[in-house]
Design goal:
Largest sheet: 6 strands, antiparallel
Number of strands: 20
Order of helices and strands: EEEEEEHHHHEEEEEHHHEEEEEEEEHEH
Strand content: 25-35%
Radius of gyration: 61 Å
Strand order of the largest sheet: 2-1-4-5-6-3
Distance between the termini: 92 Å
Structural class: alpha+beta
Helix content: 40-55%
Length: 472
């Protein structure tokens, strides 16, 4: 069996005029003229209102009596029933309904009310409960102000979200997949060979033509070494021949000096003979001195042959040097070494990247747009770049430096528009230090009308400040 506890109907809470009696603790009997299921009106002519008593209900010549606890209300002279049991409340309610309906209550109803198995739980809040419920309640005016503030904040948030999105669509062109790019120049090995030495390291600054990696091959080194050895041998032979030539010339000079002295000291009848001998000597047909001339001529011929060989070998050495130098990795652009991919003794194959150099040109931001947005950008448009440098977000000013159509495999395989942006607020050295290569960056290009509007606003603000400063 399920038992549901309900209070009497609310429409039965108004007061009725019916005789009730209240027996006080002092023995005095008070006649109650007006009462309801909530309580009763205590006569004004009586003194202090009681807190308890015995309530007597007349029924078919008998009286039903039960104790009640009362809660007085001074100003209204009204006593509330307090903590009535289920049987008491049901009995009082039957008598109350019979008066309102004009029908006499039956004995069965009275007996049933007296035999009620449980007490009903009152559904109304007591005064203590009401006081506790409203003890920490914020005043209504403050609640209204708080509600209006919350609604205003929500309205501002929604307006900001919608408004910022609309403004971004009409005033800003967002470049996707943007990142910082350094002007890197990879230097590759032109011909395969072994790395003989690596004169540079990461961070070194190089000029055009500097050798960064020396590469050798066994064939080139062997041929060059052979030529150098042959040149060295011929140089040594040349030294010996030059000495023999000097000795031969010295002997010829000594022989001529003797003939000159003899001609100078000759008697008159011998003068012509001595003079003819000297002339024959100078003409190199004097048979007495032919061996000296033949020895000198032989040496000079050998020297001439060796000089020809040396010239040929030196040309060959130069060719071999050029071939060997062609193997070296040489800086084609001035800049800073950012990567060295080879080590000494390693075999560098043809086309292999050996050294990467970052040029002296400043780093740029590069991004991509779809082909549909190609007409939206032109060179010179103002750009806002947002980067995260590790110490927080930073917004930089930039300018569109180049807009070109093409495909950048590192950005997108789709044909579109490549956008290059130069940074205005930083020097190339600052960019190189603070913005590493391939750093992601958010690029927002302002449309021309936004830039014009900003310039007009700045001009207006400058004029206002000038007028204000002039007046002050």
């Amino acid at each position: 069996m399920k038992i549901r506890h309900e209070r009497p109907m609310s429409q039965l809470e108004f007061q009725v005029r019916a005789p009730l009696a209240l027996l006080l603790d002092s023995g005095e009997r008070v006649s109650i003229e007006e009462w309801s299921l909530k309580g009763l009106n205590y006569p004004k002519e009586l003194g202090e209102m009681p807190a308890r008593g015995m309530l007597m209900i007349p029924f078919q010549g008998v009286k039903i009596t039960f104790p009640v606890a009362l809660q007085p209300v001074e100003r209204e002279r009204f006593l509330y029933f307090k903590n009535l049991t289920g049987r008491q409340r049901e009995t009082l309610a039957i008598f109350y309904r019979s008066i309102l309906s004009g029908k006499m209550a039956s004995t069965d109803e009275i007996i049933t009310s007296l035999d009620a198995p449980v007490d009903l739980v009152p559904m109304e809040e007591t005064q203590d409960e009401l006081d506790k419920a409203t003890e920490k309640t914020v005043p209504r005016s403050l609640r209204a102000i708080a509600s209006m503030t919350v609604y205003a904040l929500f309205a501002m948030l929604i307006f900001w979200l919608l408004g910022s999105g609309i403004y971004s669509n009409i005033a800003i062109v967002r470049v996707t997949n943007a990142r910082i790019e350094a002007p890197l120049v990879p230097h590759i090995s032109q011909l395969g060979g072994y790395v003989a030495s690596v004169p540079v390291a990461v961070g070194d600054q190089v000029a055009v033509g500097d050798i960064m990696v020396r590469i050798q091959t066994p064939d080139s080194e062997g041929a060059l070494a052979d030529v150098r050895l042959r040149i060295s041998l011929l140089d040594e032979r040349m030294i010996v021949l030059r000495e023999r030539e000097r000795v031969a010339l010295l002997r010829i000079e000594e022989a001529r000096a003797i003939l000159v002295e003899e001609a100078a000291n000759a008697l008159p009848d011998e003068f012509d003979e001595r003079r003819a001998a000297l002339e024959a000597f100078d003409g190199r047909f004097n048979p007495e001195y032919q061996l000296l001339y033949d020895a000198l001529l032989a040496v000079q011929r050998e020297i001439s042959d060796i000089e020809d060989d040396l010239q040929r070998l030196r040309r060959e050495r130069g060719r071999l040097r050029d071939t060997a130098d062609a193997l070296h990795v040489v800086a084609s652009e001035a800049g800073i070494v950012t990567d060295v991919a080879v080590i000494r003794g390693q075999y560098a194959s043809r086309g292999q990247i050996a050294v990467t150099v970052e040029g002296l040109a400043p780093r740029i931001a590069r991004g991509w747009l779809t082909q549909e947005m190609a007409a939206a950008l032109t060179e010179g448009m103002q750009v806002k770049l947002t980067v995260n440098t590790g110490q927080g977000r930073r917004v930089l000013d930039g300018t569109v430096a180049d807009v070109s159509a093409g495909i950048d495999p590192e950005i997108s395989a789709e044909f579109g528009t490549l956008v290059s942006v130069s940074l205005n607020d930083m020097t190339p050295q600052e960019i190189r230090v603070e913005l590493p290569h391939l750093l992601p960056v958010a690029v927002r290009v302002q449309r021309d009308w936004v830039t014009s509007f900003d310039e007009r606003v700045r001009s207006f603000v400058a004029v206002v400040r000038g007028v204000f400063n002039g007046n002050t």
